[in-house]
Amino acid sequence: MSKMKYCLIIGNPLKRPRSVPLWNKFFKAKKIKLKMFEKVIPKNLFKQQIMSILEDPNFKASAVTMPYKKKILPYVVIKDKISKYAQSINFLIKTKDKIYGYNTDVFGALESIKNKRKKNIIIFGFGGAGEAIFRCIYKLYPQSKFQVVSKKKNIESFNKNRVKFIKKIDQDYLSRADLFINCSPLGSNLKKKFLSETPLKKIHFQNINSNILVFDIVYKPSKTLLSKLCKNFSIKYINGLKMNTVQAQKALSIIQKNYKIDAV
């Protein structure tokens, strides 16, 4: 890597992440002497390469994508409660030779559903984002009840009066749910087959709560099959663009706060 001070986005695979142009535009506008690059780390070389990156004196910060949001945990210090509750990291920053980790994704998700009713919630998908979002809402809103739709088994003993893990959507619960969060890749462009898939099918809208908010963390493409179904049935829908933008802004604000010395 160049002798210049730099930031990375690490993951495997990486598909034209928005972070790279967004961060570099920010650095240029603020006259901060940093530049961001993509870094695909082979899964079998994660420990070796991550240590090399973190020990490089020119490395300053990184966005972290799947499958490394949990694998990075042993290398970071976590201070804020959102990141602690999420138990995964998507952003890290080096300050005085210490690596601090944050989950700005969950921060962005919480901002997207701020002031929305959260009594009965459906989490669809329990992968990296789904698990992190669920864990944080579970801790922050102790009155909320959940149904988590996932092929994965309940990995620990959550309060059984509040959480139920199921393999398919419960139509009865959907009829009284306040919030449906799609944390799966269905509808996204990550794979061609996902574009024609949706977590909520047409049949689900026959008994859906008319006041429900459907929050879809997918933002590419901006209009998915799920968004079209929600529009057809007059169901309020928001995609993941705000979440993605807010999380990037949060990360950049942390960088700017920590690296004032790099501004000219």
Secondary-structure map:
Layout: E1 6-11, H1 19-30, E2 35-40, H2 46-55, E3 59-64, E4 77-78, H3 81-86, E5 91-95, E6 98-102, H4 104-112, E7 120-124, H5 128-140, E8 145-149, E9 163-166, H6 171-174, E10 179-182, E11 213-216, H7 225-232, E12 236-238, H8 241-258
Parallel strand pairs: 1-2, 1-3, 4-6, 7-8, 7-10, 8-9, 10-11, 11-12
Antiparallel strand pairs: 3-5, 5-6
Helix pairs in contact: 4-5, 4-8
Describe the structure.
This protein has 264 residues and is α/β, with parallel strands linked by helices. The chain contains 8 helices and 12 strands. The chain starts with 5 loop residues before the first strand and ends in a 6-residue tail after the last helix. Helix 4 crosses helix 5 and helix 4 packs across helix 8. The strands form 2 sheets. The protein has a 6-stranded mixed sheet with strand order 2-1-3-5-6-4, with helices on both faces. Strands 9-8-7-10-11-12 form a 6-stranded parallel sheet, with helices on both faces.
Give a summary of the structure in a few sentences.
Helix content is 30%, strand content 21%. It has 264 residues and is α/β, with parallel strands linked by helices. α1 links the parallel β1 (6-11) and β2.
Please tally the β strands and state the result: 12
Largest sheet: 6 strands, mixed
Which class best fits the helix and strand makeup? alpha/beta
First-last Cα distance = 23 Å
Question: How many DSSP helices?
Answer: 8
- Binned, the helix content reads 25-40%
Spatial order of the strands forming the largest sheet = 2-1-3-5-6-4
Mean pLDDT: 91
Give the H and E element order.
Answer: EHEHEEHEEHEHEEHEEHEH
Q: Judging from the principal axes of the Cα atoms, what is the shape?
A: globular
